[in-house]
């Protein structure tokens, strides 16, 4: 792996380059933040960790099996950990995280944020598709996955693997950090103006979805596809098997899917009844194109009944589904959705609203874009499992 080395850009002050701007930091600013000590680590930081608008955070040497989840509020994480720790798992040569058990793992990266910057974190796509629930906590933090302006200290990752036991190792990345300054939100009125110039949603068979056909309310809503290829043997979803072997997260394109997943096939009724507390991988009906000057997050959507939870890892980098030089027929990539119903069986139908996509600004257009350049795993995906499984 290529080490991240100092460049001429380090001569520029990050605070100067961000002056008067609002939005998420992109790869150039994240690199500056590292060289100027805002992000630091006792290990080498690698160029491959820097994504278009985020930094991959790495697991440290130990995982602590804990009794329960917690938020430290007015105390340090280490102090709370003393009361809740059951045992340690050494991750230097790899260790097993058992299905259904909660672990806390100190991360290798630490922060020394200025008062103008705050952070947020989310699972990586491959983590969410494996039904791994992860979230970051910090010293004296009162919310998960949020890092207050001016925070100085360590980052800790809470991990719960809900479907499979997994083997992880020091240095593996399960989640990402994004840094933001000011108000990055894009209103629906602003989004409408942007959308009419650069459509974001496309029909699965090609062509942009007209704005007057889009459901917009604090972002755009997208729906689930239960038609697939519209034939008998077409797979429209995957359901995690209840009992399976360990998934080693150091191995990609390695495992046979049918050892871990049950395919769910097309039904003429275009509907599916989801079983309580089962985990499903599904596909959006619409294709999505995130232009290079935007970022998007797929927000967990829960009907008011609380019977359905969709999406654990929902961050879309600039360039996702964007195919420069191609027409509207070729734009967009469909989104994969992670779904877990609660309490009772829940029926869903083709075209049912499933997720909301929230859009925000970035400080500048990144030099890296999601896609072939970064060897992104899901740039042209259809119904795709996590990268650990053979296609």
Number of domains: 2
- Largest sheet geometry: 6 strands, antiparallel
- In DSSP terms, counting alpha (H) and pi (I) runs of 4 or more, how many helices? 5
Named at the architecture level, the CATH assignment of the largest domain is Distorted Sandwich
Could you name the CATH class of the largest domain?
A: Mainly Beta
Question: What is the CATH H-level superfamily of the largest domain?
Answer: Deoxyuridine triphosphatase (dUTPase)
Spatial extent as radius of gyration: 21 Å
Proportion of strand residues: 25-35%
What would you note in describing this structure?
The chain is mainly beta and 391 residues long. The chain folds into 2 domains: 8-181, Deoxyuridine 5'-Triphosphate Nucleotidohydrolase, Chain A (Distorted Sandwich); 188-374, Deoxyuridine 5'-Triphosphate Nucleotidohydrolase, Chain A. The protein contains 5 helices and 26 strands. It has helices at residues 14-18, 27-35, 77-84, 125-128, 188-197, and strands at 23-24, 39-40, 55-58, 62-66, 85-90, 95-97, 102-112, 117-123, 132-137, 146-147, 152-161, 166-168, 173-181, 201-202, 220-223, 235-240, 247-248, 261-265, 271-274, 280-288, 295-299, 308-310, 315-316, 333-341, 346-349, 353-360. Strands 2, 4, 5, 7, 9 and 11 form a 6-stranded antiparallel sheet that branches. Strands 14, 16, 18, 20, 22 and 24 form a 6-stranded antiparallel sheet that branches. Strands 1, 3, 8, 10 and 13 form a 5-stranded antiparallel sheet that branches. The chain is globular. Its EC number is 3.5.4.13. Residues 188-389 form the 2'-deoxycytidine 5'-triphosphate deaminase C-terminal domain. InterPro entries: DCD_C, DCD_N, dUTPase-like_sf.
